Amino acid sequence: MSPHSCEQETSSLDRLTLSLGVPMDPAKRSTSSVLTVDGAKVYVATSRKSECVVDIPVSVTHTIQVKASTAGVLSTAKCEQPKTTAAAVVTRLTNPKKYGARLPAARWSACAALGRALGEPDDLTSLDIDSCAGADGLRLELDYGKGVDLSAPKHIRQFGDRKVRQFKLPECNLQWNQGPSGIAGTNFVVTLQASTCASADKLALGLMKSLNGPAPAQAAPQHPLTYKANEPIWRTRAPAPAPAYAPSTSALAPASLTSRLKRPLAAQRSCGE
Predict the structure, then answer these.
(1) What is the pLDDT of residues 46-100, one digit of tens each?
(2) pLDDT over 70 for what percent of the chain?
(3) Same domain, 10 and 94
(4) 193 touches 187 (CB < 8 A)
(5) Which of 212, 233, 262 is the last residue of a domain?
(6) I need a surface site. Which of 13, 91, 140, 200 has the fewest CB within 10 A?
(7) Is the pTM of this model over 0.90?
(8) Residue 66: which domain range?
(9) 227 with 54: CB under 8 angstroms?
(10) What does each C-alpha distance from 246 to 60, 113, 116, 238 come to in angstroms?
(11) Looking at the 3D structure of the chain, how many domains does it have?
């Protein structure tokens, strides 16, 4: 899980995932079915007979995505769960200010954090809100999890008062617990990849400092966020002011968009409730 994605295990499906700010290009739209959910345009696609993906477009290039996946074969009927979830999301998007981010990490995008640490370069690519790539194999990922395994001393290094796990794949990777996520039993986990450990070390210190500081100003949610059934998807909207590199959906919280759905306690915790 991550600051802008939420996951639950269900009895009928292995996994149901909700993600904010997912890139969607015209090629994917052209191969997806177009449906209307509570008056909003959505795209539905199945792949490998094991996934059903419902994308709710919120801009020309990004969506809020609901994905059902299973270890076996996904029947046609199993697409109903992500469609139902998408309907709940669409309802809440009529008043996005009500469902703003509550947890500290949710106010960050990976590119906003990396950009601040690097001095706001112009060569960063947002893979999604919680993943960012730069030149020479540079990559940053923000996650929620139980925490970094610090049990192997030979892989642990000390950065000030913070312990960092180092591993090579073959790039140099550093991983650390930035602090509590705000969800019981989980941490805000940062993973940094760079071509050399020297560059990773220098950047890690900058990231720790940046993420300890104030988050970027929250964007006012764009309104309306969804597209009407017959509205051209290429229509450009006047953007709301947004933090650097962050789609406007970064100001939303994935758990709050589906808060009325019935889910097991474990799912509620993973989604930040």
Answers:
(1) 876 678 899 999 988 889 999 988 766 666 667 888 999 999 999 988 887 777 6
(2) 79
(3) yes
(4) no
(5) 212
(6) 91
(7) no
(8) 5-101+220-270
(9) no
(10) 15, 10, 13, 15
(11) 2
